[in-house]
């Protein structure tokens, strides 16, 4: 298609191929990935910040594609140059000059306008843990449960294994400094737990942390709603030993000690409560 030509060959035109790839990328990132749950693949809504990040990567690849050689790059630029320069495109240019500022203004207003919506209810930030859970079909008593790895093997090896698990799975949300400021964190509400906060890990028994990691946001009791944690159900991806080892790493890296179960008349005391 040349500047004055028709659109009969548009499916093979570099510009419209780039447009189609851009639209397809957005559909996949914004709607395709969350829709995987309907075919049995674990997935969750992709935060807007992550969609923007993925789209930036996709657009970079698309620009590399259309600039692969000089002829393709020239073909890609033809519709743009025609819109900007041709006399018969004045109305189209005027439409863009009006529509683009309006669109930018609308998006900006939506981002900065104050929101005063009333909350839908009360949420317990630190819901009480259950007395027992089922982990991969095995019943586990949470009350009084201690981390078994602290009495098995070499603690330094457990810390090393826990570091591997953390960096492969937890870092994007909880951050390299375990401060809840990972590069995906600002896309979630509530934000990921800050493990370096003395109001968190030191107040929790390791069994509570195991429960929260294993069963994630979907495992929160009713009082944890309506703003559920975005924590995945990690028992679908991690073994029991991997979860216990990452817990050891978190306490070792933060410098905190876990809260211990106290004995009262020969029975464990009430479960400590905690966040995310």
Keywords:
Cytochrome Bc1 Complex, Chain D, domain 2; two-stranded antiparallel sheet; 2 domains; 44% helix; 276 residues; disordered C terminus; mainly alpha; 4 strands
What's this entry about, in short?
This protein has 276 residues and is mostly helical. It is built from 8 helices and 4 strands, in the order ααααββααααββ. The protein has 2 domains: 10-112, no CATH class; 132-268, Cytochrome c-like domain (Cytochrome Bc1 Complex, Chain D, domain 2, Orthogonal Bundle), CATH 1.10.760.
**H/I helix tally:** 8
Question: Helical content, roughly?
Answer: 40-55%
Shape: elongated
CATH level-four homologous superfamily name of the largest domain: Cytochrome c-like domain
Strand content: under 5%
- Main sheet record: 2 strands, antiparallel
What does this structure look like?
There is one protein chain. The chain is mainly alpha-helical and 276 residues long. The protein has two domains: 10-112, no CATH class; 132-268, Cytochrome Bc1 Complex, Chain D, domain 2 (Orthogonal Bundle), CATH 1.10.760. The chain is 44% helix and 4% strand. The chain has eight helices and four strands; from the N terminus they run ααααββααααββ. It has helices spanning 14-32, 48-66, 70-85, 90-112, 155-169, 171-174, 206-215, 240-254, and strands at 132-135, 138-141, 263-264, 267-268. A two-stranded antiparallel sheet has the order 1-2. A two-stranded antiparallel sheet has the order 3-4. Strand 1 (132-135) and strand 2 (138-141) form a beta hairpin. Helix 1 packs antiparallel against helix 2 (48-66). The relative contact order is 0.11. Mean pLDDT is 83; it is low at 1-7 and 263-276.
């Amino acid at each position: 298609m040349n500047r004055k030509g028709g659109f009969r060959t548009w499916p093979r035109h570099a510009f419209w191929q780039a447009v189609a790839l851009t639209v397809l990328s957005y559909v996949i990132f914004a709607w395709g990935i969350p829709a995987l749950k309907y075919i049995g693949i674990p997935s969750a809504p992709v935060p807007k910040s992550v969609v923007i990040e993925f789209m930036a990567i996709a657009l970079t690849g698309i620009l590399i594609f259309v600039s692969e050689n000089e002829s393709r790059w020239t073909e890609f630029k033809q519709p743009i140059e025609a819109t900007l320069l041709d006399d018969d495109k004045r109305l189209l240019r005027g439409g863009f000059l009006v529509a683009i500022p309006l669109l930018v203004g609308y998006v900006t207003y939506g981002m900065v306008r104050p929101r005063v919506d009333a909350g839908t209810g009360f949420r317990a930030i630190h819901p009480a843990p259950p007395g027992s859970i089922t982990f991969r079909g095995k019943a586990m008593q949470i009350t009084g449960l201690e981390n078994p790895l602290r009495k098995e093997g070499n603690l330094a090896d457990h810390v090393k294994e826990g570091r591997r698990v953390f960096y492969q799975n937890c870092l994007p949300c909880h951050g390299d400094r375990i401060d809840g400021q990972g590069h995906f964190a600002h896309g979630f509400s509530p934000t990921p737990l800050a493990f370096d906060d003395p109001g968190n890990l030191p107040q929790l028994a390791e069994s509570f942390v195991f429960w929260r990691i294993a069963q994630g946001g979907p495992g929160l009791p009713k009082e944890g709603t309506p703003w559920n944690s975005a924590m995945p159900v990690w028992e679908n991806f991690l073994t029991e030993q991997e979860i216990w080892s990452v817990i050891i790493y978190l306490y070792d890296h933060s410098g905190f000690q876990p809260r211990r179960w106290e004995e009262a008349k020969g029975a464990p005391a009430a479960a400590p409560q905690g966040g995310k």
